Every structure is written in structure tokens, then in C-alpha cells.
């Protein structure tokens, strides 16, 4: 067993003193405030892996944003075709003689854009619907939960595929479809957290103090519900990039904006002769998704310190 | 037994409703889709008005939308998924031919990944050797992050191109019907790996969670060895959430089959769907989606039944309601 | 503690550090010495945070198994040193010598295992007979439960809180331990149920001639059940002695103050009394100095 | 001023086919400023549900909760705001009655702002500090910036009381407000509550399962069992001549220090 049970032992607390006393004795005599909690950031930045992959992710985003400016023209065809990586073309060239580094850089732009946009949409949708359902309860909860359950029970990925295939060809449409099929994860967690917090004393205290519901939701419920939501959202970035690349690999996507997935689609016929065409885009997807997931794990440890604290 | 009947009755009814909604969504998607199936079918070949009209009549494209919808729903419910606009064959028949290919990969991958994930997850959760937990957790996170179709491509490159040990594509030599075992290995490995990665992560955290519960202290207080505590108390409780995860993974498996079958040219439902998408053979796309939906819904129902049988808290609600003490 | 021969349990200078974060830790128990003779009933009282629960868990070998939990000092059963003993030795002690009754009857039973099996498991392998059922039913009835034959086939969620607490007692006594450690065994129960469970505990311990360590924040509960009492404050034992003597003539100022505040809550005509912070601080300093 | 529950009942509908639960059945109760009224009962007796009805947190299924004859259910918005200021809550702390992300200063201050007790940053801080000192958190300045986890249990309970009395309520509904505290801390908080009653004339509806405490502080007692008030009376009546058998059981079950030294028998 590797779990920390000191929490539940409950005895690792400081003496439960009372804050009174003659004159100014209260402060001096108050128990040393419970061993100051480590900050989430402190826990996070102490993990070398987390910091390393945060840097990798930041680097990838930066390159995707700036790279195309320096990386050359992804559609210029003047080079010899099917060249393996060399000093001139770091990632080689493709069957039309286009510089592959430029193409990979360009592809990353769209992949990352899709990943982050989908995650942002999922978070918005999930937080709104989940918090309304969990906090207000009653009929609102019943209806919204039915909606969440429906979106969960439908074969989301298959439908995303069909919908993208039928409506496809536009990044925005793909983002919308992916968000629609992936938001339930955040919503479910948000709902559970909001429902849990709604039962807590401080929400009842705020209610009996006369605060309006929306205010309690915004100031008491949401801030305390955010940690697991942030972790899930982070993971969603990775999943969205994976799914988008899968769609693009199947040829579903914006033909004008090649992504890592569509590069892999183009590369398959040349697996025999040009390994680099299939290797590098996939490696990029892998690195970004791995970074995002590791980040999510590290955030989870940092924000949710009861699990895995003692290893 | 009545509460159980009511429960499963509800479950069946809501599954049926869900299926109807999916069919409707699909149908509407087709209606608002840009592009015209007739045009796609005819391609760029010049066609006489007569021939066009004949096609329209054959496929009912001239009827109003609601009528086509009702006809389609009626047909689907009787097992008729329509006719492929490209090959002119019955969609049901096409799927019947392809489904076994998909199912064999899915079932084998499901079994392998489930068994291995239980072992790995439990080991990672309880080992006292940090490197072993690190290896398993790190490995599962790594494979969880690899796109499975890219993994497939890399497997082909390594085992078919570089090493030349296994065939790269297809289910049998020279496209003959039937399956030769060598052809199954890579698709199964690619499918099972990503499944395994996800499930191992869940198994690890659910074992850790179970081992952190208070009743583990009770078990320890009995003087049971740590192995017995794990096997008798930790794992049985950790396995409950795994039932849900395994059930949910069927959806992933089927959706993922489109990618894997495209990579390996594996002639299953997924590849049928991918080809149909490219050819705008919409009846086939709809048909495959509906069949996959039905399979996923069946998996959900089975999951629910298994869970109800295994978790005494649910079982008791169904069979011994009212017996619980005050 | 002036007794001839080796006591059943002898704890000397027990000190326990528990991790509170990935780098921080707290000294939950600073200095605890206590002894329990065969057949004796001993109480540990203290406020929350006094270290009484951690002490009880350390004695039952049930502290978290993390390597960052540090136990120093000495815990001896019949003279056998257990601090630093290998897990196997602890398994043996837990399977025969010491049983534990926990506070929260809801979470301390395995939700997916039948009651009968959970009790049966607690009977040491050597003593398990082929007709396992007989023993299980015996211990269940000993713990004051009725309809035990049917009860053994049930799952924990089908039982009330009081019944669950009795099942926990049955599990703890099924090994016929030399020592039973009961940590706030009735705190989570309603007063009417609490009284019945305490009576059961009392009768069971008498029947099996088992020693008892009863840990509670509620002095009234401990007073009615024990021969001797240890008063804990901030990780230290500040006073010990025969229960009646300690309660009637407390010597340590903390015990005096604690009893005064308890009496002020339960007895008429006594003004409500809360221990001033300044006093607490001075005791903490004094105990610190005495221990080091 | 009179806070009154008349035949107030609360039925919780069970989800999906289960039987519904009558949490409170025809409860009649009266509380006035300066009174110390206690509701005693064991878990599941419906005492907390009754408390929430008195606070207007959940509506009564039938019957009414009224302040000076005005039914809570039919109050206008302004009447409701006045009700909130008149009837305040102090809830049990361990359930997390303080938002872990807010400082003491903010927790009390936001109530001050909401009800316009003081305007302007400095005025709000002053009001908060005064109130903290009133509940014995001295010097107040040292507590303003602290988070709940940096306080002891007794201090947290005092912050809750400060948050309630800063509105100048006439009646405080306290649900198990001291149950989880150690004896000494419990005595301290009760002292404070009694002190506030004397100084400010606050009345209490004190909900608890802790009989000795009731005997110590209450003047009038309601005994609840399975949703019903089975007996009511002055403290002396209840403790010396209980009429309902359940009350007798409760009284005999409460362990007291004086009752016995050494093992029974």
C-alpha cells in the first residue's frame, strides 16, 4: 500500500485549541496553524518530468505558431522528390518534392489549434451544463443528466466520423463536431463536484446569509470545483488531437490545411520507400499528446493532494 | 424480482430510443450534407436524363423527405439497411460479410487487453518497487498517447518492410476469403495496445483507491498477509469500476476499427465504412453506423447486467428489496 | 505499572512521525509510555489531535505502510519487540494477539463480502475448524447480534449502524485476542445505540478475559469501562493512574482543566469552563522540555 | 418577534419508484429573541430538516414557517431579505461550513457588503474586525488574512458565529453547531453563545443530539423522533418529569461522568 492515511487518521492535527484567551494571547497561543499546505504550483514544479514536458509542449506550441514563418513554404515543389532527411531538408522531402519540415510545421499548427479549441469548448460546455445540473439539482438536473447520458451513450466517435465525413472539409466544423462528442467528460465531473459542494456547509451558510444562487455558484462552487475540471480539460486536449489526427488520416478534414493526420494518410503508400514521411508526423502527435497527458497527471497530483501523496 | 424487471425494461426502452435518435440524426445529416449522392454515383460520366430518372426512382430520391425517413426507419427495424448505391448490393449482406472480420479482432483484443490490464494495474498499484510502478505507469501513459493508427504504420514498417516477418496488409494471401493467422497479428497488437494502455491506467488508480479504503484496515487487523488483503479485499472492490470501463471500451474498439482496418487493409466493417465514405455510398455509411451503434448498445446492456450481478449493493436492490435492516 | 512479571503490552517512549505532504511531516506522537496487564482494561483519553488514535494504531500495527511513517521507541507484546519487526511478525501478532475495533462502522466493512466470510477470515488458520459456520455464528452472537445464521449471509449495506459496529466487534474478537484496541467505538453512533454497544463490548471482553484499550475523547465513556486511564495531550501522556483516582484527584493541571470543562458541560450549577489558550501553551512547552 | 412553525411537514420524494420519506411531520415550534430553544433527536429524527425549513433553505411541503405571522412562502423579495437578516444560521463545521478558498476577512466581509451593513473598504474591514473581537477572536487583525485550514475547530466555529451575528439577527438557528468539538472548546463556544444572548438579546434554536449540552443551556426543549415532535416542555419538565417513553430512553442513554467510575457491575 502506498497511500497516505494520515488524513483519515485525523490525529495528525494540531491540538484543537480555542481562539480565546485574555488579551492578545489568542494569537500567540493558537496552535501552530495546521502544517501549511504545500501549494499546488510547488508540488507541480518539483516534478522534473512535469517541468520537462511542459517545456516540450510550450516549445511545440511556439514552433507551431512561429515555425511556418521560418520553416519555409510547405507547398513549394522545386526540390528533388523523396529525399531522406539531410542537412538541407532536415526531415526530407515528399513525393512532390516539397520540404517535409515545412509541411510538418504547418500541420502542427492546425492539429494544435484543433486540440486546444476543442478542449476550450468542452470545458465551457461542460462547466456550464455540469454546474447547472449539479448545483441546482431537481428537474434541471434530471433533464441535463439525461442529455449528458444521451451524449455519452451514443457512439460518439463513430458519429463524429460520419458527421465529419458528411459535413466535413472545414476545420471549424470538425472542432464543433469533436466538442459535441467530447464535452460530457468535463460535464460529468463538474456535475459531481458541484453536487458534492452544494451539500457542503459553506454553500448552505451562504444561502442562509442571503446570497443569490448565481453568486454562490460563481464564488463558492466553481472555484472549488475547478481542480478536477482543469485536469480533465488538459487530457481533452490530447484526446482531441488524437481523434482529429485519426479523422485526417481517414481523409476527412480540410484539404487546404494539412494536419499531422493527413500527412500520415499521404505517407502510407510510401511506407516501403520513404519511412520518414510516416515517422515524423506521428512522432509529433505522440510527443504533444504525451506532454499534455503527463501535464494532466502532474496537475492531478498537484491539485488533488490526497491521492498519491506518499510514494 | 420485479424491481429488476422494471430496471432492465427501462434500460431496453432507453436503448431503443437511443437507437432511433441515432438513426434520425444520421438521416438528417445526410439531408443537410453538401454534395449529391446521385452525382457522386454517376461520377463525371455523361448520363442521359432517362438514366438519371431511373436511378432516382430506384433509390426513392424523388420522394419527400419524411416519407423516405419513415420508409428507412421501417426498413432498418426489419433488418433491411437498404442497397449500396455503388455496388448495388444489399447493405445488410455487405455488413454480414465484413462484420466477422471486425469482431474477431475486437474480441481478441478485448480479451487480451482486459486480462493483461488487470495484472499490470494491480502490480503497479501495490508494488513496493518504485521502478516497477514507474515502468508500468509510464509505459501505459506512453502507449495511451500514441495514435493507434500510427503505431500500426510503424508496426508495418518494422515487421513487414524492414524485417519482412509478417504481411503488411489484408486478411489472407492474394485477397482470398477467410483469415490467415499471420495477417491477424499486427492488427490485434495495434488494437490491443492502446486499449491496454487506457485500461491499465484505470486499473491502477482503482486498485490504489480500493487499497486506501477503511475496510482494508479491518482486513489488516485480522493479520491477513498483504497478498491476501490484496486478493480478497482490494481487487474485488477494484474490479467493479473495471466492468464499466471494459463495457465502454467496446465503443472505442469499434470506432478505432475504422483506423486500424484502413492501416492494415483489413476487410472488416471499418474499412467498408471508410471506403463508403470516400465513395459517398451513404446507405452503406448509415448501415455500418447503425450496426456499430446496436453493438455498442448491446455491450452497455451486458455491462449493466454484469454489474448488477457482481455488486451486492445493486443485486440486493433487485432481489431482496425491503429486506435491508433499519 | 508496578507489577510483577512481564506485562502483556509494554510501550516505552513511543514516537510517531506521519507525513502530511510530499515533504512535510508531523510528530503525531511525541512520547508515550504505557503498559497493559493481562485482563486489564485501560483507557486513553485526550482531545482531538492529542495523538491517541495514532498511539492505538501503532499498538495494533495499523499505521499506514508508507516508508515515510516513522515509529520509534518500543512496543512489546509479552516481551517481544515489535518496533522494526518484519511485516510477517506483525501479521502474526495481528492474527492472534491484538484485535482492533474502529470508529466508523460504515466504512470499515468490505462492501462486497458477506458478513459471515468477513468474520470467518478473522479466525486464525490453526483454529479454523471444518464446520466453519459454527465459529462464525458463535462470535456473531457473542457480539450481541441476533438471527446470526441469516445475518452471516448478508452484506454490510443491509445492516444498521449499531449492527455493523457489533460485526466489527465480532471480527476483532474472532481471533480471541489477548488485547483489544477499541478506538472511539461508539462515537459515530446515537446515544441509545452507543450504550448497548458499550455493554456488549464490556460483556465480550469479560467473557473472553481479554485486555482492553479503550480510546475516546469522551471521558464519561472511558470512566465507566476501565480500570486505569492515560490522559494524553499534544502527543504526550501527561497523567496516568487508576481511573477513579485520576478522575477524583487529577494531578496534572491539564487533567484538572479538562475535567473541569467536562463537568461544566454535564453538571448543574457549574459554570461553563473552557481551557484558556495561555495554559495550553505553557503545558505544551513543559511537556516538550520534560520529554527532551 | 416570533418565529413559528405551524404544522410544518416535509416529504422527500424518493427517486424512481421508491417510497417517499416523511422527514418532518406536523411540527409546531416557536422561538423568540432571547430564548434558548433546543430541538433534540437522534440521527434520522428530522431535526436538521426542520432547521433547514426554519432557515427557508427548503420549502415546507405543507404547513408553514412564519415570522411574526408572515408566511415564509408568501414573502416578497424585500421581506425575504429582512427575514435573512433576522434569522441566521450557524451550521456544523466539520461538514465544511467555510469556503477553503476564502480568508476569514472575506468570509465575514462579503456578508457585510451584501446586506450593506457598511460601505467602503475601510468601513467593511472595521465592521468585520469588531465582530471578530465580539466572538473572542482577538486581535482580529491577525485573523483577517487567515484561511479556514489555518484555524482550530473552535476558531472556525467562532467565524461562523461572527458571520451570523454581523447581520444583527434576532434569532440564530444552530444545527449541531458544537457537536463535533472537544469538551473544552464546546464549553467555550457555548459560553460565547450565551454571552451574545445576554449582550445582544439573540435567541437560539439549538439543534443537537447532545442531551447534556441541552440540559446545560436550553430553556425550552422539543424532542423529535422519526420526524415528529413527540414531546415539548421547559427544560425542567423534560429532564425531571419526561412523559414520552422515548425521552426517558434518551435521558438514560446519555453517559455522564458522575454516573460511574470503574467498570459497571
Keyword list:
heterotetramer, A: 311 residues, mainly alpha, MetI-like fold, 13 helices, elongated, disordered N terminus, C: 292 residues, Rossmann fold, 4-stranded antiparallel beta sheet, 23% strand, globular, transport (chain D), nucleotide-binding (chain D), ABC_transporter-like_ATP-bd (chain D), ABC transporter ATP-binding protein (chain D)
Q: What does this entry look like structurally?
A:
Chain B: Pfam families: BPD_transp_1, BPD_transp_1_N. Chain B: Belongs to the binding-protein-dependent transport system permease family. Chain B: It is a multi-pass membrane protein. Chain B: The chain crosses the membrane at residues 101-123, 135-160, 180-198, 238-264, 284-310. Chain B: One of its GO terms (cellular component) is plasma membrane. The complex is a heterotetramer of chains A (311), B (326), C (292) and D (265). With 311 residues, chain A is an all-alpha fold. Chain A is 68% helix and 0% strand. Chain A has one domain: MetI-like fold. The longest helix of chain A is centred in the middle third of the chain and has 37 residues, at 100-136. The model of chain A is unreliable at 1-36 and 306-311 (pLDDT under 50). By secondary structure, chain B is an all-alpha fold. Chain B has a domain at 96-267: MetI-like fold (Orthogonal Bundle). Mean pLDDT of chain B is 83; it is low at 320-326. Chain C is α/β, with parallel strands linked by helices and 292 residues long. Chain C has 11 helices and 10 strands. In chain C, a hairpin with a 2-residue loop joins β9 and β10. Chain D has one domain: 3-Layer(aba) Sandwich (Rossmann fold). In chain D, α3 packs across α4 (121-134) and α6 (153-165) runs parallel beside α7. The radius of gyration of chain D is 19 Å and the shape is globular. The N and C termini of chain D lie far apart (52 Å). The model of chain D is unreliable at 261-265 (pLDDT under 50). Chains in contact: A-B, A-C, A-D, B-C, C-D. The interface between A and B is large, with 49 and 60 residues.
Summarize the structure.
The complex is a heterotetramer of chains A (311), B (326), C (292) and D (265). With 326 residues, chain B is mainly alpha-helical.
Topology:
The complex is a heterotetramer of chains A (311), B (326), C (292) and D (265).
Chain B: H1 2-32, H2 37-42, H3 49-58, H4 65-77, H5 91-126, H6 130-145, H7 148-162, H8 181-211, H9 214-221, H10 226-264, H11 269-278, H12 282-310, H13 312-319
Helix pairs in contact in B: 1-12, 5-6, 5-8, 5-10, 5-12, 6-8, 7-8, 7-10, 8-10, 9-10, 10-11, 10-12, 11-12, 12-13
Chain C: E1 9-19, E2 25-36, E3 41-46, H1 52-59, E4 70-77, E5 80-81, H2 87-96, E6 98-101, H3 115-120, H4 132-142, H5 148-151, H6 161-173, E7 179-183, H7 191-208, E8 211-216, H8 219-223, E9 228-233, E10 236-242, H9 243-248, H10 253-266, H11 277-291
Parallel strand pairs in C: 3-8, 3-9, 6-7, 7-8
Antiparallel strand pairs in C: 1-2, 1-4, 4-5, 9-10
Chain D: E1 3-12, E2 21-31, E3 36-40, H1 47-54, E4 62-67, E5 70-71, H2 77-86, E6 87-90, H3 104-114, H4 121-134, H5 141-144, H6 153-165, E7 171-175, H7 183-200, E8 203-208, H8 211-217, E9 220-225, E10 228-234, H9 235-240, H10 245-253
Parallel strand pairs in D: 3-8, 3-9, 6-7, 7-8
Antiparallel strand pairs in D: 1-2, 1-4, 4-5, 9-10
Helix pairs in contact in D: 3-4, 3-6, 4-6, 6-7
Amino acid at each position: 500500500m502506498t497511500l497516505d492515511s494520515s488524513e483519515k487518521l485525523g490525529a495528525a492535527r494540531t491540538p484543537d485549541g480555542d481562539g480565546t484567551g485574555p488579551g492578545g494571547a489568542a494569537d500567540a497561543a493558537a496552535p501552530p496553524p495546521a502544517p501549511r499546505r504545500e501549494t499546488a504550483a510547488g508540488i507541480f514544479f518539483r516534478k522534473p518530468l512535469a517541468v520537462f514536458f511542459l517545456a516540450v509542449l510550450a516549445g511545440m506550441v511556439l514552433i507551431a505558431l512561429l515555425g511556418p514563418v521560418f520553416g519555409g513554404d510547405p507547398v513549394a515543389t522545386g526540390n528533388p522528390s523523396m529525399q531522406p532527411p539531410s542537412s538541407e531538408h532536415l526531415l526530407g522531402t515528399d513525393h512532390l518534392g516539397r520540404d517535409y519540415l515545412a509541411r510538418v510545421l504547418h500541420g502542427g499548427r492546425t492539429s494544435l489549434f484543433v486540440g486546444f479549441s476543442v478542449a476550450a469548448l468542452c470545458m465551457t460546455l461542460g462547466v456550464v451544463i455540469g454546474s447547472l445540473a449539479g448545483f441546482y439539482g431537481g428537474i434541471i438536473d434530471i433533464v441535463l443528466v439525461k442529455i449528458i447520458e444521451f451524449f455519452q451513450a451514443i457512439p460518439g466517435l463513430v458519429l463524429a466520423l460520419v458527421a465529419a465525413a458528411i459535413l466535413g472539409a472545414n476545420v471549424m466544423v470538425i472542432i464543433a463536431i469533436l466538442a459535441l462528442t467530447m464535452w460530457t467528460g468535463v460535464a460529468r465531473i463538474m456535475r459531481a463536484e458541484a453536487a458534492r459542494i452544494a451539500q457542503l456547509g459553506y454553500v448552505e451558510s451562504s444561502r442562509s446569509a442571503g446570497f443569490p444562487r448565481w453568486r454562490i455558484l460563481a464564488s463558492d462552487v466553481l472555484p472549488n470545483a475547478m481542480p478536477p475540471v482543469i485536469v480533465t480539460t488538459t487530457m481533452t486536449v490530447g484526446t482531441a488531437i488524437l481523434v482529429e489526427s485519426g479523422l485526417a488520416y481517414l481523409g476527412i478534414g480540410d484539404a487546404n490545411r494539412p494536419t499531422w493526420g493527413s500527412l500520415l494518410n499521404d505517407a502510407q503508400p510510401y511506407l516501403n520507400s520513404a519511412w520518414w514521411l510516416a515517422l515524423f508526423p506521428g512522432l509529433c502527435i505522440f510527443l504533444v499528446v504525451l506532454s499534455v497527458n503527463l501535464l494532466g497527471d502532474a496537475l492531478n497530483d498537484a491539485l488533488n493532494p490526497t491521492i498519491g501523496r506518499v510514494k | 424480482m420485479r424491481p429488476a424487471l422494471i430496471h432492465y425494461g427501462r434500460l431496453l426502452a432507453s436503448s431503443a430510443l437511443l437507437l432511433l435518435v441515432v438513426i434520425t440524426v444520421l438521416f438528417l445529416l445526410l439531408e443537410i450534407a453538401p454534395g449529391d449522392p446521385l452525382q457522386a454515383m454517376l461520377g463525371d460520366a455523361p448520363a442521359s436524363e432517362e438514366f438519371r430518372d431511373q436511378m432516382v426512382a430506384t433509390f426513392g430520391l424523388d420522394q419527400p423527405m419524411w416519407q423516405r425517413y419513415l420508409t428507412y426507419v421501417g426498413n432498418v427495424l426489419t433488418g433491411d439497411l437498404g442497397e449500396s448505391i455503388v455496388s448495388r448490393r444489399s447493405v445488410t449482406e455487405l455488413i454480414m460479410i465484413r462484420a466477422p472480420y471486425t469482431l474477431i479482432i475486437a474480441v481478441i483484443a478485448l480479451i487480451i487487453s482486459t486480462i493483461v490490464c488487470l495484472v499490470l494495474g494491480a502490480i503497479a498499484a501495490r508494488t513496493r518497487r518504485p521502478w516497477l510502478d514507474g515502468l508500468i505507469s509510464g509505459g501505459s501513459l506512453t502507449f495511451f498517447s500514441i495514435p493507434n493508427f500510427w503505431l500500426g504504420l510503424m508496426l508495418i514498417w518494422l515487421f513487414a518492410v524492414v524485417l519482412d516477418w509478417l504481411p503488411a496488409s489484408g486478411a489472407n494471401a492474394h485477397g482470398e476469403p477467410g483469415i490467415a493467422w499471420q495477417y491477424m497479428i499486427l492488427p490485434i497488437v495495434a488494437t490491443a495496445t492502446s486499449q491496454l494502455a487506457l485500461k491499465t491506467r484505470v486499473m491502477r488508480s482503482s486498485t490504489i483507491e480500493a487499497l486506501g479504503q477503511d475496510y482494508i484496515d479491518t482486513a489488516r487487523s485480522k493479520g491477513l498477509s498483504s497478498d491476501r488483503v490484496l486478493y480478497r479485499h482490494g481487487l474485488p472492490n477494484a474490479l467493479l469500476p473495471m466492468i464499466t470501463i471494459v463495457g465502454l471500451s467496446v465503443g472505442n474498439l469499434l470506432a478505432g476499427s475504422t483506423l486500424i482496418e484502413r492501416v492494415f487493409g483489413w476487410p472488416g466493417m471499418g474499412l467498408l465504412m471508410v471506403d463508403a465514405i470516400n465513395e459517398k455510398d451513404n446507405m452503406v455509411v448509415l448501415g455500418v453506423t447503425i450496426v456499430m451503434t446496436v453493438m455498442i448498445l448491446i455491450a452497455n446492456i451486458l455491462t449493466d447486467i454484469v454489474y448488477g450481478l457482481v455488486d451486492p449493493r445493486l443485486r440486493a436492490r433487485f432481489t431482496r428489496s425491503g429486506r435491508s435492516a433499519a | 505499572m508496578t507489577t510483577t512479571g512481564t506485562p502483556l503490552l509494554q510501550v516505552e517512549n513511543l514516537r510517531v512521525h506521519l507525513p502530511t505532504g510530499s515533504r512535510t511531516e508531523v510528530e503525531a506522537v511525541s512520547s508515550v509510555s504505557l503498559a497493559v496487564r493481562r485482563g486489564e482494561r485501560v483507557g486513553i483519553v485526550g482531545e482531538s489531535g492529542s495523538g491517541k488514535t495514532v498511539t492505538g494504531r501503532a499498538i495494533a500495527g495499523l499505521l499506514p505502510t508508507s516508508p515515510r511513517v516513522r515509529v520509534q521507541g518500543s512496543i512489546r507484546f509479552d516481551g517481544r519487540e515489535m518496533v522494526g519487526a518484519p511485516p510477517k511478525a506483525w501479521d502474526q501478532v495481528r492474527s492472534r494477539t491484538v484485535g482492533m475495533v474502529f470508529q466508523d462502522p460504515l466504512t470499515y466493512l468490505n462492501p462486497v463480502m458477506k458478513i459471515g466470510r468477513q468474520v470467518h477470515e478473522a479466525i486464525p488458520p490453526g483454529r479454523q475448524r471444518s464446520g466453519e459456520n459454527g465459529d462464525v455464528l458463535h462470535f456473531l452472537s457473542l457480539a450481541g447480534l441476533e438471527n446470526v445464521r441469516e445475518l452471516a449471509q448478508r452484506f454490510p449495506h443491509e445492516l444498521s449502524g449499531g449492527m455493523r459496529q457489533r460485526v466489527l466487534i465480532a471480527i476483532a474478537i474472532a481471533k480471541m485476542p489477548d488485547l483489544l484496541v477499541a478506538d472511539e467505538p461508539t462515537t459515530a453512533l446515537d446515544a441509545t445505540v452507543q450504550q448497548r454497544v458499550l455493554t456488549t463490548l464490556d460483556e465480550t471482553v469479560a467473557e473472553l478475559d481479554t485486555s482492553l484499550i479503550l480510546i475516546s475523547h469522551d471521558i464519561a465513556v472511558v470512566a465507566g469501562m476501565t480500570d486505569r486511564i492515560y490522559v494524553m495531550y499534544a502527543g504526550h501522556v501527561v497523567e496516568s493512574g487508576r481511573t477513579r483516582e485520576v478522575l477524583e484527584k487529577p494531578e496534572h493541571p491539564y487533567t484538572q482543566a479538562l475535567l473541569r470543562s467536562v463537568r461544566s458541560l454535564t453538571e448543574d450549577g457549574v459554570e461553563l469552563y473552557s481551557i484558556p489558550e495561555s495554559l495550553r501553551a505553557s503545558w505544551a512547552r513543559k511537556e516538550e522540555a520534560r520529554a527532551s | 418577534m416570533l418565529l413559528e412553525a405551524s404544522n410544518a411537514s416535509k416529504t422527500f420524494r424518493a427517486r424512481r419508484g421508491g417510497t417517499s420519506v416523511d422527514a418532518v411531520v406536523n411540527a409546531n415550534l416557536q422561538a423568540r429573541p432571547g430564548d434558548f430553544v433546543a430541538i433534540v433527536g437522534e440521527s434520522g429524527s428530522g431535526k436538521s430538516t426542520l432547521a433547514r425549513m426554519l432557515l427557508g433553505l427548503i420549502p415546507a411541503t405543507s404547513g408553514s414557517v412564519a415570522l411574526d405571522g408572515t408566511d415564509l412562502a408568501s414573502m416578497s423579495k424585500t421581506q425575504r431579505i429582512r427575514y435573512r437578516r433576522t434569522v441566521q444560521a450557524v451550521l456544523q463545521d466539520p461538514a465544511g461550513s467555510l469556503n477553503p478558498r476564502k480568508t476569514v476577512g472575506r468570509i465575514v466581509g462579503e456578508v457585510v457588503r451584501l446586506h450593506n451593513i457598511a460601505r467602503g473598504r475601510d468601513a467593511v474591514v472595521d465592521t468585520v474586525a469588531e465582530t471578530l473581537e465580539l466572538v473572542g477572536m482577538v486581535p482580529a487583525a491577525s485573523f483577517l488574512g487567515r484561511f479556514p485550514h489555518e484555524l482550530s475547530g473552535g476558531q472556525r466555529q467562532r467565524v461562523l458565529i461572527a458571520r451570523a451575528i454581523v447581520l444583527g439577527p434576532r434569532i440564530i438557528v444552530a444545527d449541531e453547531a458544537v457537536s463535533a468539538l472537544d469538551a473544552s472548546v464546546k464549553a467555550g463556544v457555548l459560553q460565547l453563545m450565551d454571552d451574545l444572548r445576554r449582550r445582544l438579546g439573540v435567541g437560539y434554536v439549538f439543534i443537537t443530539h447532545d442531551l447534556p449540552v441541552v440540559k446545560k443551556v436550553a430553556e425550552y426543549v422539543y424532542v423529535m423522533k422519526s420526524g415528529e415532535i413527540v414531546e415539548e416542555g421547559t427544560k425542567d419538565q423534560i429532564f425531571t418529569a419526561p412523559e414520552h417513553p422515548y425521552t426517558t430512553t434518551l435521558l438514560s442513554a446519555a453517559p455522564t461522568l458522575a454516573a460511574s467510575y470503574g467498570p459497571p457491575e
